[in-house]
Amino acid sequence: MTTTSPTALDTPYDLAPGRIAAFERDGFVHLGGVLDPSVVAGYEPEITAKVIELNTMHLPMAERSTYDKAFLQVGNLWQHSDLVRELVHSRRLARIAAELLGVDGVRLYHDQALYKEPGGGVTPWHADQYYWPLATDRCCTIWLPLQETPLEMGPLEFAAGSHRFEFGRDLPISDESEAALQVALAEQDLPVVTEPFALGDASVHLGWTFHHAGPNTAAGPRRVMTVIYIDADMVAAEPVNEHQAGNLAASLPDVRPGEPAAGPLNPVLYRR
């Protein structure tokens, strides 16, 4: 069963050279009209159903940690739904990632649904690659909201140019990372960019780009699907923290440090 023509997920997106240059300069880019709104709306019910089915966080908001207040997080939905697999394996999205990274091809690292519930708290400042045992910085996340996302829902905020800033790369998402990076990024005078997202928009950010999100003060959940891509020729690195060790086992099963990051969960999604 499909929700839309395969063409909508496979045809190339017109990624202007200026947008690629902006991504290289800033470490992120906000792209309009990545998918037609009707395509996104067609996948949202299935993604939401899988989040409800697979979510393991059931504590009241007041009893959760800062991390758990930020969002409900469910990974590798593509393994649980043929419909979600269509979206996650989209050649259109994967080509955007490859062109922005400047590589010949990309593999899937994993997907994650990130649902910030009404009343959900801030997502503290952090860089994703703290969690990933990867040998280079050629990895990125496509952040695809599943509804129009005004500022009150807590869209991502990016510190432009922070992918070149090494302070804080040893900090997990926490109250400590929020406090320390607020100060450090301000001292570097790195602009913080916050924008609403129309349905069909997406952002793409590098693994070392520092980002944050505000609380969701709206009446409904902020529903987001993400896909993380790595260079098709990426090599797994020796984990430097316990999170990376867990990520190596979960996202790169049967792969050892120094080997190509090409486990059974990491198909090539695009090559030129």
From TrEMBL:
Coiled coil: none
Pfam entry (one): PhyH
InterPro entries, A to Z: Phytyl_CoA_dOase-like
Any one GO molecular function term: 2-oxoglutarate-dependent dioxygenase activity
Region (Disordered): 251-272
Entry-linked SUPFAM superfamilies: Clavaminate synthase-like (SSF51197)
Keywords: Dioxygenase, Oxidoreductase
UniProt protein name: Phytanoyl-CoA dioxygenase
Organism from which the protein derives: Jiangella ureilytica
